[in-house]
Specification:
This protein has 112 residues and is α+β, with helices and mostly antiparallel strands. The chain has three helices and eight strands; from the N terminus they run E-E-H-H-E-E-E-E-E-E-H. The radius of gyration is 17 Å and the shape is globular.
């Protein structure tokens, strides 16, 4: 029996249960995160979210942060573990981060 309120096609559950829907409503939308500024604990912008990496297990494992450059030119993408980020006052915060520390990380390049 599918969870209450879930959509079913054949024997596969397509939607989410009411309980899951409440959790979804509390989450962050990827469309709002990608392109969003990244701040440190001192409320200084240290980069911008370029992308999100989702593992096969359906978890956002890394946030690709664009650092440096000017108007998008010369910027470098770096991968930062998603568990390092905090949401604070509607902002994406990377506690303890500085532009220099992010720029010193190895550049991230997509494999495909």
């Amino acid at each position: 029996i599918p969870p209450a309120g879930a959509q079913v096609a054949g024997t596969s559950t397509l939607g989410v249960s009411v309980t899951e829907l409440n959790l979804v409503a509390q989450g962050w939308r990827a469309s709002k995160i990608i392109g969003a500024p990244v701040y440190n604990g001192d409320k200084k912008q240290v980069g911008k979210v370029a992308d999100l990496i989702i593992t096969p297990g359906r978890m956002v494992s890394y946030v690709i942060v664009s650092v440096g450059g000017f108007l998008g030119l010369g910027a470098k993408d770096v991968a930062v573990s998603s568990n390092r980020f905090k949401g604070n006052e509607g902002r994406l915060v990377l506690p303890g981060a500085t532009k220099q520390a992010l720029e010193s990380l190895p550049a991230f390049h997509y494999s495909h």
